[in-house]
Amino acid sequence: MIHVDGASYCIDPAGGIAAALGKKWTLPLLGILGNQPTSRFSEIVGALEGLGAKALSSRLRELQRLGLVARSVSREAPVKVEYRLTDRGEGLRRALVPFLQWAGTDRPA
Predict the structure, then answer these.
(1) Average pLDDT rounded to a whole number, residues 27-47
(2) pLDDT band at residue 61, thresholds of 50, 70 and 90?
(3) Spatial distance between the Cα atoms of 3 and 27, rounded to a whole number of angstroms
(4) Looking at 16-20, 24-28, 46-50, which range is the least confident one?
(5) Contacts of the segment 74-81: beta carbons below 8 A, 24+ positions apart
């Protein structure tokens, strides 16, 4: 629990988001997915050097389970799978901006 200005905030009210944010590739993945309306699997792998297909699949499934990422599959041939941030995912991405600003400017000496 965090207490600020007379209000109390649960550290992880959404159950698992804090843990997901602490895992490798989650923050860059949220960035990549939020920079485009939709992204295909191969585009994501290409944008994140060093990220393997197995790790990407795992992270995308976790973010889907948390309601942050949506997966859509076309019915046409060849099948096209695309990923995008949900409104909840976009809200989290925007909420991270002040933290990233703080982290980038307030470094210890």
Answers:
(1) 92
(2) very high
(3) 26
(4) 16-20
(5) 80/40, 81/40, 81/41
Q: Kindly state whether residue 5 falls inside one of the protein's structural domains.
A: no
Length of the chain: 109
Is residue 69 within 8 A of residue 86, CB to CB? The reply is yes
Measured torsion, CA atoms of residues 72, 76, 79, 80, in degrees rounded to the nearest 10: -50
Q: Which CATH number belongs to the domain containing residue 38 in this structure? A: 1.10.10.10
Q: What is the number of structural domains in the chain?
A: 1
